[in-house]
Structure formats: structure tokens, C-alpha cells
TrEMBL record:
It comes from Astatotilapia calliptera. Residues 83-272 form the Pyridoxamine kinase/Phosphomethylpyrimidine kinase domain. This is Pyridoxal kinase. One of its GO terms (cellular component) is cytosol. Keywords: Acetylation, ATP-binding, Cytoplasm, Kinase, Magnesium, Metal-binding, Nucleotide-binding, Phosphoprotein, Sodium, Transferase. It catalyses: pyridoxine + ATP = pyridoxine 5'-phosphate + ADP + H(+); pyridoxamine + ATP = pyridoxamine 5'-phosphate + ADP + H(+); pyridoxal + ATP = pyridoxal 5'-phosphate + ADP + H(+). The keyword Nucleotide-binding applies.
Length: 310
């Protein structure tokens, strides 16, 4: 299938102002030729990094009603499902039911999941989501994009060396997904402390039935700012570039991380310009410059190169 023939069901948050969740995922995927159907897990005025926000949260029952409507019209054939931040266990379990049903209809469907649990040693979703992710979501996922904390939490193993990270990715493969990208880690970068290390691993079945695994490492420049919506953009771009390079994780990661670099650099430059000399940019100033990054999303200049580690 070309991207033009691919349909994505994206079940994510929605904000009126800015780029988070479905807005972070849909626009870049559409630019790259994917048809995107969006279900808003929440509908907020803006992301929760602002001082104030208002809005509604979709319940599991309401999600089921929307899905039933799609099904009744027999337009529920999807090639990809994409999910991100969720706070409710029953909603997450309904997502799993939908993914399983869609996979029965299309066994080639790819489920891309950002298992949003927390970061830097602490959870920022309710604790009862953890067993649902571990026991129900990850086993039906094909591509997952945890950070180091989430990868450690899901496997029960700490990462302090590259060897640990490879073992954690293998444990995650054993749980279900064929593609695992640890988006950020605390491992020391070979390029110094202004870079962070990301790692990826992809399993393939050869025509003779034997398995092979490609693993990559990337050194990614750190940025001194808090962005919201970058995880959603990352998962969407990994979906797109693994579609175009299904057996070449190195290239897919280089394209994905390079898009991230261009969008973030454009955003931070603009934010500093607005904030003025010596002042920290505010949440509205740090909204991702997505429309302005159209050309970089469509054809990113490669600025982050991946190293194959095994």
C-alpha cells in the first residue's frame, strides 16, 4: 500500500489551541498522504501546561458509540491505529477491544502505541493504568515508543548501560511489539552532555521463518525547554516512516528524529524571539510550529544519524 491508500484511526486528545494529540498527529500524517480518522479522547481548550484549561473527557461508552457508528456504515477498515495519552482504565480497555476487532478484520493492521505512563522516575497517570498497559495494550501493539522510565516500568528492569537497554527492548519484543523505540534515556552520550541517547530495535521474520533483529542508537541534541505534543508527533512520524521503510529501522528513525529536530528548533527559535532576551518562553510561545515546518515534515534533511549496534 502507498501512504495514499492507508487509513489511520487516531484515538488521542484534542486541544482547541495549539498542537497536542490528534492535532500533532493528523496534520503531519495527512501531509505525508495518509487518510486520518480522529477520535478525541479529551477535548480541551488548550494543553494542561497552561495556567487554566477547560473541556470534556470522552468515556469508554462514548468511544464505543462512535466506533459503532463507523462500523454500522461498514467504513471500519484501517491499516493503522495510533494512540497516546489516556487517564482512564475502562477507556484504555475499550481501545484494546477496538484494536483486536480491527485486527480480526485486517490481520495486517499495525497498532502504534505511545504508552504514556510517566517520566524521570514518576508516573503522571493513575497507577491502575500500568497493569492495563503491561497486560493488555503492549501485547496487541506492533510499534511502541516508551521513554526510559516507561520501558523500565513495563519490563521491571533498570537501564544503566546500552546492554541493559538492548535486554529491555528484547523483553518488550517478547511481550508483543516487533518495533520498539526508547525515545529518550539517561545513558551517557558519546557526543557529550548536550546530547541524549535514544535506542531502537526491530524484529523481522525472514522468508525461511528465522528471526533477525536490527538495533540502532541515536545521539539527539537536548533542548532546554518543555514542549507539549512532541511525543504525539514522534509516534505519528515513526508510523509514517516505518510505513515507507518497513525493514529499515535505521532510516525510519533518522527521518523521524530529524523531523523532530527541525520542528523543535523552529519552535524554540520563534519562542525566544517572542519572549525577548533573557526571558524564558511561556507555554503559548512554545506551541509547536507545525504549519511552518511543512517542508521539513514532507522531506526532512537528515541531521540525526543512527548507528547500527547489532
Amino acid at each position: 500500500l502507498t501512504a495514499m491508500e492507508c487509513r489511520v484511526l487516531s484515538i488521542q486528545s484534542h486541544v482547541v489551541r495549539g498542537y497536542v494529540g490528534n492535532k500533532s498527529a493528523s496534520f503531519p500524517l495527512q501531509l505525508l498522504g495518509f487518510e486520518v480518522d480522529s477520535i478525541n479522547s479529551v477535548q480541551f481548550s488548550n494543553h494542561t501546561g497552561y495556567s487554566h484549561w477547560k473541556g470534556q473527557v470522552l468515556t469508554a461508552d462514548e468511544l464505543h458509540v462512535l466506533y459503532e457508528g463507523i462500523k454500522l456504515n461498514n467504513v471500519h477498515h484501517y491499516d493503522y491505529v495510533l494512540t497516546g495519552y489516556t487517564r482512564d482504565t475502562s477507556f484504555l480497555e475499550m481501545v484494546v477491544d477496538i484494536v483486536q476487532e480491527l485486527k480480526r478484520a485486517n490481520p495486517n493492521l499495525v497498532y502504534v502505541c505511545d504508552p504514556v505512563l510517566g517520566d524521570h522516575g514518576s508516573m503522571y497517570v493513575p497507577q491502575n493504568l500500568y497493569p492495563v498497559y503491561k497486560n493488555k495494550v503492549v501485547p496487541v501493539a506492533d510499534i511502541i515508543t516508551p521513554n526510559q522510565f516507561e520501558a523500565e516500568l513495563l519490563t521491571g528492569k533498570n537501564i544503566s548501560t546500552e546492554k541493559d537497554a538492548v535486554e529491555v527492548m528484547d523483553l518488550l519484543h517478547a511481550m508483543g511489539p516487533d518495533t520498539v523505540v526508547i525515545t529518550s534515556s539517561d545513558l551517557p552520550s558519546r557526543l557529550g552532555d548536550r546530547f541524549l541517547v535514544s535506542l531502537g530495535s526491530q524484529r523481522h521474520v525472514r522468508p525461511d521463518g528465522s528471526r533477525t533483529t536490527q538495533r540502532v542508537r541515536l545521539e539527539v541534541p537536548k533542548v532546554d525547554a518543555v514542549f507539549v505534543g512532541t511525543g504525539d508527533l514522534f509516534a505519528a512520524m515513526l508510523l509514517a516512516w516505518t510505513h515507507h521503510y518497513p525493514t529499515d529501522l535505521k532510516t525510519a528513525c533518522e527521518k523521524t528524529f530529524s523531523v523532530m529536530h527541525h520542528v523543535i528548533q523552529r519552535t524554540i527559535s520563534y519562542a525566544h524571539e517572542l519572549a525577548g532576551p533573557g526571558r524564558r518562553p511561556s507555554p503559548p510561545q512554545l506551541e509547536l510550529r507545525m504549519v511552518q515546518s511543512k517542508a521539513d515534515i514532507e522531506d526532512p534533511a537528515i541531521v540525526t544519524e543512527a548507528t547500527v549496534i547489532s
